[in-house]
Amino acid sequence: MRKGKDGIMRLLGKGEPVPYRQMLKALNVSRHERGRLDDMLDYLVETGEIAKLPGRIYTVAGAGDTVRGKLSTHRDGYGFVMPEDGGEDLFVPARYLSEYMNGDTVEAQVVSTRRDGKREGRITALVQRGVTEIVGRFEAVGKGGRVIPDDPKLGRDLFVTPGPAGGASKAKNGQIVLAAITSYPAGARPLEGRIVEVLGEANDPEVEALTVIKKYELPHVFDEKVMAEAERQPQQVTEEAIQGRVDLRERLTVTIDGETARDFDDAVSVAREGDKIRLWVSIADVSHYVAEGSRLDTEAYLRGTSVYFPDRCIPMLPEQLSNGICSLNPQVDRLTMTAEMLFDSTGARVDQKFYTSVIKSAARLTYTTVKKVLVDRDAEAIESNRHLVADLKVMEELSLRLNAVRKGRGSIDFDLPEPQIILDLQGETTAIVRAERNLAHRIIEEFMLAANEAVAHFLESTPVPSLYRIHENPDPVKLQDLSEFVFGFGYILKVVDEKVSPVALQKLLAEVAGKPEERLINEVLLRCMKQARYSAENLGHFGLAASSYTHFTSPIRRYPDLVVHRILKRVLAGKMTKADKDRLEARLPETGLHTSKRERVAMEAEREMVDLKKMQFMRDKIGEEYDGYITGVAPFGLFVELIDLFVEGMVPVATLPQDYYVHLEKSHALVGERSRAMYRIADKIRVKVAAVNEPRKQVEFALVGTLEKRPIEPIADVRNAYQRIPIKGKRPKPRRR
């Protein structure tokens, strides 16, 4: 046969993709020679010289898709390129990642696509380095040393140059340091750098917070010029500032927030009008104090959002503004932007208007206080707030109407429990409890959703360029997998033209409510959802089943809300010129992209800080047993969240009972091939705390036993899964691709 590399490349070099069967004929391959051809094709795909397309079709490298995006690596060496323009991530094997690091922006070539649509590729070019500094633990080695990164995804240590140039003399063994990269890995050359700052001793709460701040490059100190600008702002509302505003100071207006909140950016007021209810949502007028293009504005844009750790807040604005003149503190005049809306007896919005205003909050209420009045009927709380009780009851009634409207159109609510970290004065974790979400939370949530939606509809209908909060339809492939998954439980989820309606998903959640598989299907459905983001193009909000939605209600802590305030004020004042529209159309896409990125960075930093506190809480729990739910399944183990403590850890697959375990990706399960023992997402199991791996920031569990019978076992999936995962015993022979 003419099956050598030269023959294959000549055949593919004609420019047209060639199916495998056509290649057999063109190269005159006999039956007993197919194995050699397969080996050569596999080799050429792995080296990136050719690409394998769905349906076992081959083409020359470069003819396949090219992906540009950020590289996310796994601590085991492999990684994924997340496309800048969206779509499915591209898997990159470890053998192609020796010179690249987590966070790098790269270009990659798709070299193969499986039948299930999953793509594999190799990196062809570095666009931009994502990491220039590394935070980690210093270990002295001779006159130099090494820094063990705090982020396990980096997958390699940084070697500190010996002598004064490396700065090794600045740090003591075991201290946490910040090191600047001076040389990236290439071939046999390792990652090298120099120490630029010693953060302090490990396990010091202040150092832990600083470690996360440095790792995620969170701006946390306002420079002198920004502070000077903030300090020039008045701390009392002047009569001049009130001129031209609607005076709402005589209205009974209150703020409702958490006990520890210090910045109050929303206040509410209600009035019954026959069978209708009028709602005033007044939001801090931050744009009055933060001028566009000022140093305060530039710094706020850079930060994008406030960041909340269990023991502190890194604010978007200096405290003179966030906790001072902008905060809607009780019994003081404050400048606001008000959305006034009228709702009928069914909860439909029948009227709306927006204007600049001035309010005086009558009370700073907490969620706990409102719950005591409306839910617990606590006599003491009712007596203390008797002048507010009537309005609070109207708020409750309106919130129920609004919630009914949202549910009626298909809005999806994932009422999942969230942890609250309880710290002592030294910053150590003393308890982890379920964060309460009661009626008071839902009242404010419904009012803020209503205001955001009303503002979005108004700006869109004006029309004027604006910034929207969008939530796109779930990924089509994941939707189809979900449809097949729930069918195994007897539920029908119709996917039409690769889409599903929010109403259909809401109906599914209602059908599984109270059933043994409820938690399982909720978890799988949640994984289908895309992440909400900011965009200058209105694509609707799938999760809220809203055709138009924005963020307007939190300008103290979110920059997009400040942008929307400025646009709304200019429209209301009749000052939106064509030049303004052109400027917004040019600038808003980048604003949406930047603020979405800052939001994701903040979320990752907040999650890491919470996980760190959880891990520290488990240090002295080695050997103790807990009940938990499986929250994730991977070929290398089970992720389990403890029911009482909200701590997540991993049960390594090597510690499970001896068997060959098959990872059923679509069924979210690990199944023992011999025993048919199944471990599936949302199963309730009992585990023992085996270890706390601080370098990896991971709690390791050992399986004690299962606690409940699974409703359905996808045995058909087991029979069809040929790729075995050897845990103990002889390794099975690999299956030829």
From TrEMBL:
E.C. designation(s): 3.1.13.1
Enzyme class, spelled out: hydrolase
Top-level lineage group: Bacteria
Localization (cell): Cytoplasm
Ranges of residues in domain S1 motif: 623-704
Keywords: Cytoplasm, Exonuclease, Hydrolase, Nuclease, RNA-binding
InterPro entries: CSD (IPR011129), CSD2 (IPR040476), NA-bd_OB-fold (IPR012340), RNase_B_OB_dom (IPR013223), RNase_II/R (IPR001900), RNase_II/R_CS (IPR022966), RNase_II/RNase_R (IPR004476), RNase_R (IPR011805)
Keyword Transit peptide assigned: no
Pfam families: CSD2, OB_RNB, RNB, S1
Keyword Hydrolase: yes
Chief localisation class: cytoplasm
PROSITE patterns referenced in this protein's UniProt entry, alphabetically: RIBONUCLEASE_II (PS01175), S1 (PS50126)
Catalytic activity, as annotated: Exonucleolytic cleavage in the 3'- to 5'-direction to yield nucleoside 5'-phosphates
Family per record: Belongs to the RNR ribonuclease family. RNase R subfamily.
Its job: 3'-5' exoribonuclease that releases 5'-nucleoside monophosphates and is involved in maturation of structured RNAs.
Name the record gives this protein: Ribonuclease R
Upper classification of the organism: Bacteria, Pseudomonadati, Thermodesulfobacteriota, Desulfuromonadia, Geobacterales
Gene: rnr
